[in-house]
Amino acid sequence: MASISVTTSHSPEQTTPVRPAALAEVLAVGTHLLVGQYRVELGSGTWWWSDEVYTMHGWTPGDVEPSLDALRSRKHPDDRARVVRAATEAIRSGRPFSCAHRIVDGHGKARSVVVTGQGRRDARGRVVEIAGYVVDVSPTHKEALERESQRAVTRAFVSQAAVEQVKGVLMAVHGVDDVAASQLLAEAAGEAGVPVQETAAQVMRALSKAGGVGPTAEATLAGAFAAVRPVARPRAHDAQLARRREPARS
């Protein structure tokens, strides 16, 4: 469950009560997140922000007057049009909405936020107010990048380990040195049309399945290399390559 930091001081009476537990459950993350509130009265164009909204945009309360123009000035240029479309639809329909996008704070630092909210209608059914939350999810993005980086490092170590293992087998079976073993592996990979790391991984899997090289070491090793095959690519990947190869149309 996420740890949510929410301040309710200076909150106007009309603002929807804060429900940090519900937000944490929806976000399903285990990171401390900064959550702010906002409210805009559509008739007068009056905005209200909690202190957290100022903070995540790089302001302190009182630095700027809450407004759409102030928020727009801090939206990431690549996301600005999409956010405007989402806001326009929310004002028109009044239905609950959620929009993930990037902002750029006063120090030029990009942050990832999620804005949620919904409209309130008057007795005549007109949408007169939009209120909701702004959640700074930058920490979760950072954690995801760190996890992916660690996975990439792990994959690199595993791939290199397989290469070194196969070289060791080649050296033992054929009585060659490290340089010659590397050359044999590279030549086999080239003949199979498979990268060296993938070739080594497939050879080691084949040897493991065979229970090792055994008494017929050369034949077993040769069979493992002969079984190396290119890894099938997803069809979506082939489609992307095909599109890239298409000649540009005038």
TrEMBL record:
<dbReference type="Pfam" id="PF03861">
    <property type="entry name" value="ANTAR"/>
</dbReference>
<dbReference type="InterPro" id="IPR035965">
    <property type="entry name" value="PAS-like_dom_sf"/>
</dbReference>
<dbReference type="GO" id="GO:0004673">
    <property type="term" value="F:protein histidine kinase activity"/>
</dbReference>
<dbReference type="Pfam" id="PF08447">
    <property type="entry name" value="PAS_3"/>
</dbReference>
<dbReference type="InterPro" id="IPR005561">
    <property type="entry name" value="ANTAR"/>
</dbReference>
<feature type="domain" description="ANTAR">
    <location>
        <begin position="142"/>
        <end position="204"/>
    </location>
</feature>
<keyword id="KW-0808">Transferase</keyword>
<protein>
    <recommendedName>
        <fullName>histidine kinase</fullName>
        <ecNumber>2.7.13.3</ecNumber>
    </recommendedName>
</protein>
<dbReference type="InterPro" id="IPR013655">
    <property type="entry name" value="PAS_fold_3"/>
</dbReference>
<keyword id="KW-0418">Kinase</keyword>
<dbReference type="InterPro" id="IPR036388">
    <property type="entry name" value="WH-like_DNA-bd_sf"/>
</dbReference>
<dbReference type="GO" id="GO:0003723">
    <property type="term" value="F:RNA binding"/>
</dbReference>
<dbReference type="InterPro" id="IPR000014">
    <property type="entry name" value="PAS"/>
</dbReference>
<dbReference type="InterPro" id="IPR052162">
    <property type="entry name" value="Sensor_kinase/Photoreceptor"/>
</dbReference>
<keyword id="KW-0597">Phosphoprotein</keyword>
